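Annotated sample (chain length 78).
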Amino acid sequence: MLGVSFGKVVVLVAVIAVVWFAFRWLRIREAEARSKVGKQTPPAAQPEEPANAAQDLRRCSTCGTFAASRCQRRDCAL
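Output written by the structure step:
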């Protein structure tokens, strides 16, 4: 009743082949879609700097605070 027959083996191999070819076909379509999307978008002239990009801070020799440009004091050495 639960024995392995030639017909069952053929059906099992056919099901495995169909599933394998289906996954292969889907991967090929996905790769083609990715390549089409990459070709349609124009390349940016320069990459945009993110809004939260890190900045180098320097220490003011006058007041001792750290700032990217000048601090609020008139006698700031930055």
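Annotation: Residues 7 and 13 are 10 Å apart (CA to CA).
Annotation: The two ends are 89 Å apart (CA to CA).
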